Amino acid sequence: MSVRAAGGSPPVETQAAAGAPTSQAADPAGGAGPSTDGAATAGAPEGAGGELTAQRDAPVGGQAVLEGVMMRGVSNWAVAVRKPTLEQLQEGERSPEEPALGAIAVSTFPLTSVMKRRRLLRLPIVRGVVALGESMVIGFRALEVSANAQLPPDEAEQEIPRGVWAGTVVVALALAIVLFFLIPVGLTSLIKGQLGSSFLFWLIEGLVRTSIFLGYLLLLSRLRDLRRVFEYHGAEHKTISCFEAGLPLTPTNAQRFSRLHPRCGTSFLLVVMIVAIFVFAPFGLPAWYWLVATRILGVPLIAGISFELIKFAGRNRRRRWVQIVMWPGLKLQLLTTREPDLEELEVAIAALGAVLELETPGKLSASDLVGVELVA
Known about the structure:
This protein is of the alpha+beta class.
């Protein structure tokens, strides 16, 4: 099914996954989601650069994908992707910097967190680990959907088995542990004898870890192939902030908001780097094999604590001291986001609109929100 958007915009193709209702009957350019007075910006004060920032937290999150955005709600998630035109497909492989110019394809999927069924998994710190694991699985699935949308129809029908995606998640986690935990402790151990202090050891290890992380992000930010992904990352943040501020979801409204968001995964990773310093400090200077073991086994604890801090920051973003503490993480998002154009915002709105057609976060009961843990 396709719907012609107002103003001559490309049509929106909708597709529901098995067990999910069809989505996106609304015009993504004309506003999906709650409709309020467009001039009502009391919940969105201006930042230093004149952009708006939302002051409340809503149970929605998302992720940038190839030529699109994934949005996740309480019980559903959706992927909206700008597809290439027939002419672009006929031309063959296009440059990563060349935007897709076709219709917006929207796919929706049901979502039931394991935390809804297991009270133990909803405990603080534990819930963060579970939520991050679920987010990674959904994120890789969303990437598959977006990648298939860029292929000719006859090449995009094969679905990758779940076992392959599970293996991909495991490999990604292993590489992250090696890069950000094992390599820093290994490098610091080379000068362990000269330090003579456990305090200096974990401090230098933390600085090495954070430096590797910042260098990694700086390298990614300079890759031209990722420029459009970063623009869609900015579109995702702006769209969520627009919704959190209660304004109609239109590209023009969303454009007014900051591309930085306190619940962003980039901020979360910086918090992880800092929290790790304090988590590892009590272990002192044990033998090398204990150093390695603590760096691997401590990852879930660090992730869980960091998740709680990010959640707290999102709920208390009005507090001045919270804004000061989270300032470095927000500024770090300047490396992983770029200013989107109106067409990219239209795609992000289509994704969020598809979720909002199936659920209304502002009207959910307490039982509906059990086990809901989201990162923007």
